[in-house]
Amino acid sequence: MKRYMQTWMLAAAVLLIVSCGNDGEVVQKSGRSVQYFPNMYESVGYETYQEGALFDNNMEAQKPIAGTVSRGWLPYDYDNSTAGYDAAKAELTNPLPYAEKHLVKGEELYNIYCGICHGSQGNGKGHLVTTEKILGVPSYDDAGRNISQGSIYHVMYFGINNMGSYASQTSTEERWQIAHHVDALMQDLKGLPRKEFVSEDAVMTATAGVVKETKGNATTAIDVSNQQASKAN
User: Fold this and answer.
1) What is the mean pLDDT of residues 68-81?
2) What class, spelled out in words, does domain 82-232 have in CATH?
3) What is the spatial distance between Cα 165 and Cα 160, in angstroms, rounded to a whole number?
4) Which residues, 6 or more positions from 8, have their beta carbon under 8 angstroms from its beta carbon?
5) pTM
6) pLDDT over 90 for what percent of the chain?
7) How much is the average pLDDT of 33-57?
8) What average pLDDT is seen over the chain?
9) What is the pLDDT of residues 188-220, one digit of tens each?
10) pLDDT band for position 221 (cuts 50, 70, 90)
C-alpha cells in the first residue's frame, strides 16, 4: 500500500508541475503549457508553407530564381508532342558508348521498369499482357515502327499513350542504358547481329572528354552531351 501511495504522490507532483506553465511562446503556439520533446512538434527546419520574416511575402515557399534549374537537372530540348517525338527520333543520339557495362546495366533496368509489359525479349508479351491486364503492347520489331534510340529515350522521358513517363524513376544515364538494351532486343527480334562493343579505352576516352568539358559528375556530363548531341546531329 505504501508503494502505491508513493506512486500516486509522484504522479500528482508531476501533474502539478506540468500545470504550472507560463504564458510564453510555447503556450501561444500549442495551447499547452509544457511540451515533451518540443522539437518533435515544432520543426527545426522551415516547413514548405511556413511564415517567415526572412522570405518575400512572409512565406517560405518561393519560386526558383529566374534562369536557374535544380542541381543535377538540365532542360530537355524536345516537346511532348508528335513533332517533338519525330524530331527526337531523327536527331537524338545516344551519348553513351556501346559498352558491355552499359548494356548489362540497361538490361537490369529494363527488367525492372519495362519487361512487365514489353516482355523480356521485347516482343510485347510481358506478364501484364499474357495475363490480359493490359492489351496492345507492340513488339519492338513491328513493321512500320522503326524506332531509334532517340525515340526510345523520348518515350521514356514523356511517356506515350497508356505508358507513363519514367523520368522521375530513372536518371538520364539510366534511360540511355535502357535505350542500348532495347536496341539490342530489336536486333535480336529482327534476326540481326548485335553491334560490337567498343573497347574500354574508347569508353574511358569518351567519358573523360565529356567530364572535362562540363567539369561535373558523370550524370551531369551525360546530360550536357545529350543536349549538345540533340542539336548537333
Assistant:
1) 86
2) mainly alpha
3) 8
4) none
5) 0.64
6) 46
7) 75
8) 80
9) 999 999 999 987 666 666 655 443 333 333 333
10) very low
What nine digits make up the cell of 138? 507492340
For residue 137, give the DSSP letter: P
Output the CA–CA distances (angstroms, integers) from residue 194 to 64, 69, 89, 114, 141, in the order listed: 45, 38, 20, 20, 14
Nearest to 117 by CA among 147, 156, 146, 84: 156
Contacts of 119 (CB under 8 A, 6+ apart): 125, 126, 129, 137
C-alpha cell at 190: 529482327
Task: Give yes or no for a contact between 229 and 124, defined as CB atoms under 8 angstroms apart.
Answer: no
Which pLDDT does position 145 carry in this prediction? Answer: 81
Q: What is the pLDDT of residue 2?
A: 73
Cβ atoms within 10 Å of 136's Cβ, excluding its own: 8
Domain borders along the chain are 2-58, 82-232
Alpha-carbon gap, residue 230 to 117, rounded angstroms? 29
DSSP the chain: -HHHHHHHHHHHHHHHHHH---SSHHHHHHS-S--SSGGGTS-SSPPTT---TTSGGG-S--PPPTT---TT----SS-SSHHHHHHHHHH----S---HHHHHHHHHHHHHHTHHHH-TTSSS--HHHHTTSS--PPPTT-TTT---HHHHHHHHHH-BTTBPP-TTTS-HHHHHHHHHHHHHHHHHHTT-PPPPPPPHHHHHHHHHHHHHHHTS-HHHHHHHHHHHHHHH-
Q: Of residues 103 and 56, which shows the higher confidence score? A: 103
Nearest alpha carbon to residue 151 among 142, 160, 143: 160
